[in-house]
Amino acid sequence: MAIVLLAGCSMPGESPWSPSGGAWNLTGAGEQASASPASANEPAAQVPIAAPLPVLKVSTPAPDSAIPVRQVTLLLNVLRVEASSGSFTDNGELWDLLDETAATPRTVLTLRENGFRFGVGRPELWPTFRERLSRLPMVRTVYDQTVPPQDRPIDLELSARLDDLSVFVFERNGSMRGCLFSDARPLLRVDLGARPQEPGATQIEITPEIRRPPGPLKYVHNGQTFERRNEVLGSVFDELAFSTALRGGAFVVVGPARCVNASPVLGRPFFLRDDAGTVRENLYILSPQTHESTTWWVDRTLTDAALPPR
């Protein structure tokens, strides 16, 4: 059976997330991606929080003398949840439902020192997780979905506004460095890939990045000749990348560690937003969906050979 990876989207489910505008943007995605901020750094009103989407399997009838071709479509569903201060940093009820051991203990410690928490949720725990989210004070949500591009990661831009950012970054060896970024915004780079050797599983990697507008053109040697490219400004924090395999409707939660409220660590601009003098916290839920279908390829050479001569 052949395997073909395609790009496409489908949105079934018992209670689908309702698309809405807000301070949210997905870039680096296919043409079907829909997300332009409605207003700078301002989430939309509350929309329903739905269950992760199941794996869909569709088969078409097999014609005579046909070869089955399995098609796997990847889609990424993203839900941003915003609530009052302390809703996620001090909420053991939420994090107790998630598995934070997908990364090594050293990686988990480094992530928390920098203000990040990553957890994997099992699909059977989603109803409880959703119910606890709905009880948070002043909760607001923004939903989006996108088709992953094949040649680059998805960029989840967390703010429509450029700010001057001053943050501290903790290294794995225990050292600390300060970073200054002018006219910058935080984003999460998301790499998705199907696992042909494990049908129904999706590999996901999430990397924090602080990005600035492209710099001036400079000559860069590409291995063969020199070409002019815009200078890349900002920083990708590969040492804080989180990677795991998701199976059967599992989802990833990216949220703030407690230290973001106490010190200007790297994670602070990723999760905190000043709303007219009131600090609000953000949580991001990523749920990959695979759509499997079987089509049939007919060998026309065999078909034509079987036809009687004219």
**Spatial separation of the terminal alpha carbons:** 35 Å
Quickly give the structural class.
Answer: mainly beta
Main sheet summary? 8 strands, mixed
Mean pLDDT: 78
Question: Number of DSSP strands?
Answer: 17
What fraction of the residues are assigned to beta strands by DSSP?
Answer: 35-45%
Helix content: 10-25%
Q: Spell out the helices and strands N to C.
A: EEEEHHEHEEEEEEEEEEHEEH
Count structural domains.
1
Which stretches of 5+ consecutive residues score pLDDT under 50? 1-51
Given the C-alpha coordinates, what overall shape results? globular
Question: How many helices in DSSP terms?
Answer: 5
Query: Radius of gyration, Cα only, in angstroms?
Result: 22 Å
Explain what the structure shows.
The protein starts with a strand and ends with a helix. A hairpin with a 6-residue loop joins β9 and β10 (201-211). The relative contact order is 0.24. The chain has one domain (2-306). The chain has 5 helices and 17 strands. The chain has 310 residues and is mostly beta strands. Residues 1-51 have low confidence and may be disordered.
Keywords:
310 residues; globular; single chain; mainly beta
Please describe the topology of this protein.
Layout: E1 2-7, E2 25-27, E3 56-59, E4 66-84, H1 92-95, H2 105-113, E5 116-121, H3 126-134, E6 140-146, E7 154-157, E8 163-170, E9 176-194, E10 201-211, E11 217-221, E12 226-230, E13 234-236, E14 242-247, E15 251-256, H4 268-271, E16 272-275, E17 278-298, H5 300-306
Parallel strand pairs: 1-4, 3-17
Antiparallel strand pairs: 2-7, 4-6, 4-17, 5-15, 7-9, 8-9, 9-10, 10-13, 10-14, 11-12, 15-17, 16-17
